[in-house]
Amino acid sequence: MIEILHNQTTIASFIKDNRNLIIDYKNFDIKNSISLSLPNTQKIYLYDYKFPPFLESFLPEGYLYEIFKNILSKEYGKVDDYLIFSLLSSNIKSRVEFKSSLQNSVEFPVLDIDEILVNDTNDTFSSLLQTFLNKNAISGVQPKTIALLKEKEKLDTKEYIIKTWGDEYFDLALNEYFCLKAVQNAGVKIANIQLSKNNKFLIVEKFTLKSDGSFYGFEEILSLMDKNKDSKYDGSYEQIAKIIYGYTTNKKESMIAFYKTVVMNYLLKNGDAHLKNFGLLFDDDFKNIFYSPVYDVVNTVVYIHKDKPALMLEGKKLWYSKDTLIKFGQTSCLLTLSEAKEYYQECFEALCWGIVQLEKYLLKNPDFKIGKMMLDSWKLSMKEVTVKELDNDTIRTWKNY
Is the same domain home to 137 and 74? Predict the structure, then answer.
């Protein structure tokens, strides 16, 4: 059994029987709700052969999931999501916490962020992964690990996500860095990021920790739609807009930020902006609910040349042009025509800014092959035409890089 706690008080239990997963509330007070999608308004939440979407957002995926599966299969035989969650949950630090009958919480060392930024080698990543393995309740398929880090001159310790990459997604850290900085230039808040000395790591500060040591609640759009991770590409940007409008308390500000995020994903050619890559933050009492900082923005067409947008817009997965994106701002994000045009233009100017920054970087680092490909695809976005996928001439050019 797993106890779910809020403010150090048990509010629910999470248990598994032969076929069901059950969340059983013990403490009836709406402020003790686990999340936006699990309000404390009914005693039992029953899931038949399905992991609760909100709790699934803490489960590792891809690279990390396979590591846990290989480690645990020898000891436990059959490995499932409940077992992995049971072993990780006691080390999750968030608005709600967990106490597992299988694993007590562990004291982890605190490392110097400056040393990690300088020593960004494969050996360093392997060491970090081994050190913080039982803390890795994070989703996403690329190689990553949580680490507890602090700066030498500061006393506060924070959780960071350290992302790296393998040969199939070469220079992914640098790719994401340039993309997120372009989003930031469009006037959208992003997660705090730092690029390591040799561009091997992108170090991302978790944005749920408040300055007073308490936590914002956070929930992915996927969970708010009551969907599991195998459905993260099943949906539309119009549906996300409805969810954000329905939940947020600062609706106008959140809708503008979401609109700009969608536009930037199209301009930057991010084909992986799926339902897990949008989320909401909320205060402990649920009185303030707002769009989260932006994270996980990458130019994907440089790796998957025929890639398309992750979700539908107007019922299709196309790289839409200016007119369609402005229309989306009006019909789904509740902007006036002049507002949609203004915010689109801010995004377009941010794309131009990103192109200039990338060109400057390439002058000093001409071997950044992925950067050259990013530059080509971003210049195609400047033409503001709708395309199904990148043209063959561009792809043939990339083969010569």
Answer: no
Give the 3-state secondary structure of residue 163: strand
pLDDT digits (tens, 9 = 90+) for 266-289: 999 999 999 999 999 999 999 999
Which residue is listed with tokens 């503008």? Answer: 256
The predicted-structure confidence for 100-129, as pLDDT tens digits, reads as follows 988 878 899 999 999 999 999 999 999 999
Closest CA to 261 of 185, 161, 160, 171: 185
Joined together, the tokens standing for residue 304 give 């998957």
DSSP 246-259: HH-SSHHHHHHHHH
- Spell out the alpha helix ranges (H) of 120-220: 122-131, 172-185
- Encoding tokens for residue 217? 């609640």
Q: Number of structural domains, the chain?
A: 3
Longest dimension (CA), the chain: 64
126 lies in which domain range?
111-205
Supply the pLDDT for residue 188.
Answer: 98
pLDDT in tens, 66-103: 888 888 887 888 888 999 999 999 999 999 999 998 88
- Domain CATH code at residue 165: 3.30.200
Q: Are residues 327 and 239 in the same domain?
A: yes
Predicted pLDDT at 20: 92
Let me know whether 264 and 225 are in one domain: yes
Q: Contact 23/38 with Cβ under 8 angstroms?
A: yes
Whether residues 42 and 177 fall in one domain = no
The single-letter DSSP state of residue 201 is -
Query: Could you tell me if 131 and 42 lie in one domain?
Result: no
